[in-house]
Amino acid sequence: MPKRRHDHERAFMPYAFDLNERARKLRKNMTKAEKILWGVLRGRSFECLKFQRQKPLYHYIADFYCAELQLVIEVDGAIHEKRTGYDLERTGELSEFGITVIRYSNEQVIHSLKEVLNDLSQQVAKLKT
Question: Do the domain assignments include residue 84?
Fold first, then answer.
């Protein structure tokens, strides 16, 4: 398994180039929860970290990605309740590249944003050490 890189080291994360168009469409059609979280993450306004939205990584499109921490944040809707196997496989494959995946539900982001951000801050602190 690849080791976590230091802040000054950046590796190219391989991805399927045919995902670019789909990612572009997803950026134009974000869910309500994604829009709320993006409002907090964009422009280095959260922990001074740069996040990208709908970022192609390997064979997947991550809702939000921070290359500096190799961190993916997924905002899951109701459909993910039926796709737990797929989500576990996806998380496992991304972790082989040293990527950490954190998941929040749409409901958590919409109704408990403060708690989500507190949890995310704690997770980020762990990754920075």
Answer: yes
Residue 90 lies in a domain: yes
Query: For residues 128 and 68, what is the distance between their CA atoms, to the nearest angstrom?
Result: 9
The total of structural domains in the chain comes to 1
Token code pair at residue 35: 């829009």
Residues of the domain holding 80: 19-128
The percentage of the chain sitting over the pLDDT mark of 90, rounded to a whole number, equals 67
Residue 54 DSSP symbol: E
- CATH, residue 124: 3.40.960.10
Q: Are 3 and 11 in contact (CB under 8 A)?
A: no
pTM of the model: 0.83
Q: What is the mean pLDDT of residues 106-127?
A: 97
